[in-house]
Specification:
mainly alpha, 185 residues, rod-shaped, de novo design (two linked rop proteins), 77% helix
């Protein structure tokens, strides 16, 4: 009888360990999936920027320095290795600043502000920025839950034995950069 109790406890312990491990795997996959969502929105953003730059270029040809900054910031953001959260956050912070400069140019060009193509690109950019902000929030929530799970007892024991490491948050250095690119005319 005592043998059955010991075996029962061992089986329950093994099942509990398996459940804990599978929970960490599930959380890790959730993080990877949410990072993939951020990548999709960044790709949309990167694809939109050349169209926006070209539209502005036609109206503000002498603003080439601002346009070059946007293109350089976009190219730097595209070049960030996949999965490098800190570098992606920094590159996108730089890109957001460059985009603000580009959109500020439109203030000086009434014809540009009325251009249907520009207005459509601007609306699309605002939509993408909103989606990107939501994706960042979701990613950070999944990272928070995962990191909490692997750092709390008894999860920390299983995480250390199985090699689960904390993940990085998608954080911007300047909190003002976390706001969507504001576009208003």
């Amino acid at each position: 009888m005592a043998l059955w109790i010991v075996l029962g406890v061992i089986v329950l312990l093994v099942l509990w360990l398996i459940g804990m491990y599978n929970g960490f795997v599930k959380a890790k996959i959730k993080i990877d999936n949410s990072w993939s969502d951020i990548s999709v929105f960044l790709k949309k953003r990167f694809d939109l920027i050349p169209n926006l730059v070209n539209t502005v270029k036609g109206y503000a040809a002498h603003e080439s320095q601002t346009l070059e900054k946007v293109v350089q910031a976009r190219n730097a953001a595209v070049a960030v290795p996949s999965g490098d959260v800190a570098a992606a956050a920094q590159a996108n912070q730089n890109l957001t600043g460059a985009l603000r400069g580009l959109l500020a140019i439109a203030e000086n060009y009434p014809n540009l502000k009325a251009n249907e193509n520009f207005l459509q690109l601007q609306a699309t950019l605002q939509s993408i920025e909103g989606d990107l902000s939501n994706a960042r929030r979701y990613y950070n929530a999944t990272v928070r839950d995962y990191n909490t799970g692997i750092q709390q007892f008894p999860g920390v024991l299983i995480a250390n034995m199985t090699g689960f490491k904390p993940r990085e948050f998608f954080e911007l250095e300047d909190k003002a950069e976390a706001k969507n690119v504001e576009v208003k005319f």
